[in-house]
Structure formats: C-alpha cells, structure tokens
Amino acid sequence: HLSKRLAAVAKRVPDQARLADIGSDHAYLPVFLAKQHRIQWAIAGEVVAGPFENARSEIVSQGLTEQIEARLGDGLAVINPQDQLDTIVIAGMGGTLISDILTRGWQKLSGSERLILQPNVGEAHLRQWLVQHQYRITSEEILKDEGHIYEIIMAVKMAAPVHLTDQQIQFGPQLLAQPNTAFVEKWQHELARRQRVLASLKQAHHVPAEKVTMLTETIASIKEVLAHAR
Ligand code: SAM
C-alpha cells in the first residue's frame, strides 16, 4: 500500500516502462508497479547501505528479482546504456539534491528518458535546473498527503532552448495555469511565513536593504498569484 504521494508518482510512470527509481529506499514504488504488471523492468538505486538492503529484501520477499534489480551507488551512477531506460523517478528528496544528482550523472542520460521528479522542497531551484538543461516541463501536480504539500514535476529533454518566466520558475508553469486548493494552501502558507520574516526584519538593526526589497517583491508576487488563483 503506497502513500498518496507515492501513488501519485506511480500514476505518472508510463505503462510498461523500463524504470530507474533513484533513492528508492524500500523499493516500494517499483515493487508496487511490478506487482500491478505496470512496468517491464526496474532498477532500485540506493547510495546508503541500509536502505539498499531494505530494497533488496523487499524485492526478494515479493518474489520480484526477475523484474527489479537493486543497485548500490550514487545517483545515476547505477544506470548503464544497456538498461535501455525510458523513465527515471527521483522522489522524496530536496530539489537541490535532485538537481545535484542530475548534474553529477548527466552523461548517463541518453536524453530520451522521461523524468518524474518529486522534490520535497526547493522546487524553484529544480525548475531552474531543468530550464538550464533544456528540459521542458510537460506536466506538474500538487497534492496534500498527511498534512504535507508535495509537487511532482514531469520533464523531457528538448532539441532547442527552453524558456520559463521567473513567475513560472517560482510557482510552476502548469500549476500556475491550473491552480488547485493544495496550490492555494501552499502559497497562503508561504506568504504568511514571508510576512512574518519581513516583520521581524523591520524590527532588527542593520538589515541589508536588498534583503528587504527582495522579500517585499516575493510577497507581492505571491499575492498577485493568489489573487488570480481564486
Ligand atoms: N524515493 C522514496 C520515496 O519517495 O518515498 C524514498 C525517499 S527517501 C526520503 C530518500 C532516499 O534517497 C534515501 O533512502 C536516501 O538514502 C536516498 N538517496 C539520497 N541521496 C542519494 C543519492 N545520491 N543516490 C541514491 N540515493 C540517494
């Protein structure tokens, strides 16, 4: 039984994919997909020995050693051209770590893989990485699970440069176009948090003027987006 968050990630994996789940921990995602006959084959990649052992024993106990291979290694180092992957999932980590994994392993990517990324924080940083590396965001999702709000970002490599506005980078191009209640809740929360920071900055001495200006601009941009989302 998957969490609502991982179930939403699973739903984005194309039918009969050849998948790498990087940072797989217990391999719950590939195990779920293999049991449903939704994937051809998968790698469960892990860099830490404990989670790697968890992944391996879960695969063995579910009788899925033909369908899923646990591999120990850093990020995309565990994948090879012979694997003929078409889908890469990196879920449940910060956006900075996800983009670091992609940067360190970019030569392992053929460019034809679909990326399914689920950053816990740092979504804007990840979207910036995608734009800089000529990935187009094909779809996005935002959902609430157990009191946390999560974003899922699907991306594919393009032959030509990709452009997003600053607003699209910050809020997500697809999420901005179709804001739902989770989106509104997230940004109401972010707005309140930044307003608190600004208020305390104004009380403090020797605060750099640029810091106040930047925060004021961010607050204005969140207010503008929220005004259009309701
Ligand atoms: N992907 C699962 C999910 O979304 O529920 C597990 C998320 S868990 C919070 C993050 C996992 O990523 C941990 O098991 C951690 O060991 C692994 N991890 C962190 N950095 C990694 C890297 N560079 N390469 C592979 N795995 C990594």
From TrEMBL:
The keyword Oxidoreductase does not apply. Keywords: Methyltransferase, Transferase. GO terms for molecular function: methyltransferase activity. The keyword Methyltransferase applies. Pfam families: TrmK. InterPro entries: SAM-dependent_MTases_sf (IPR029063), TrmK (IPR006901). GO terms for biological process: methylation. Gene3D superfamilies: 1.10.287.1890, Vaccinia Virus protein VP39. This is SAM-dependent methyltransferase. The lineage of its organism: Bacteria, Bacillati, Bacillota, Bacilli, Lactobacillales.
